[in-house]
Amino acid sequence: MKIGSEIGLFLKFLFSLPFLINQRWVKSNGMIQYSCKPFYKLSHDELYAIMVLRQEVFVVEQKCAYVDADNLDQKGHHLMGFDKANRLVAYARILPTATRYEAYPSIGRVITAEFIRGKGIGRELMEECIERLYDVYGESPIKISAQLQLQQFYESLGFSPVGKKYREDGMWHIGMVKS
133-176 pLDDT, tens per residue? Predict the structure, then answer.
C-alpha cells in the first residue's frame, strides 16, 4: 500500500467522524437510525421531512389547527429517527434552558409516524431524547408539556406531573418534570 492511499483512507475516516458522532443505529423491531442536529445543520430535506411529519400528526391526524412554526426550532436540537427506507418515522425537539421554560431544558414536538406506532419506538425515542439532551445541555431536570392522555407513558420514563392540567393548542396538557 502506498503512503498516499493510506493518507487517503485516513482522511476518508476522519471526515466520516462527524457523521458517526451525530448518528447511531438503534435496534427496535427493525432498525431506526437516529440523528440529532442543531437547526442550522439540518438539510433542506430533513427540515421538510420534519415539518411534514409534524403537520401530518399534530394538525391533520389530531385535528388541531395551530401555528407549528413557533420560532423555537432555530434555538434547539432536532432528534430524527429514520427507518431503513430513509423515511422520517420518529422526531422530537430538544430545547435549552430558558427557551420554553425559564429554569429547564425541554423536550417537545414528540411524534412517531402512524404506521410505526405500537412497536416501542415512542419509548425508544424518548430515551434517546433524554440521553441526547444530557449530552448537549448537561444533566439537569427536564420539563415537558405532555398531552394529558400520555401522562402515564411519561411517568413510566421518570417524569412527574407539576401544576394543573391546561389547554394548549386545543388539547389538554399537563406540565411534567424529570429530576
Answer: 999 999 999 999 999 999 999 999 999 999 999 998 888 999 99
Cα 128 from chain centroid (whole Å): 8
Q: Are 129 and 121 in contact (CB under 8 A)?
A: no
Looking at residue 28, the DSSP 8-state letter turns out to be S
Are 124 and 32 a contacting pair, CB within 8 Å?
A: yes
Is 4 contained in some domain? no
The DSSP result for 51-105, as a single string, is HHHHIIIIIIITT-------S-GGGSEEEEEE-TT--EEEEEEEE-TTTSBTTB-
- The C-alpha atoms of residue 120 and residue 46 are separated, in whole angstroms, by 23
Residues 6+ apart with CB under 8 A from 139: none
Which domain, by its residues, includes 106?
A: 23-178
Tally of structural domains, the chain: 1
Identify the pLDDT of residue 68.
Answer: 84
Q: Is the dihedral of CA 87, 89, 93, 94 positive or negative?
A: negative
Kindly give the parts of the chain with pLDDT less than 50.
1, 10-21, 25-27, 29
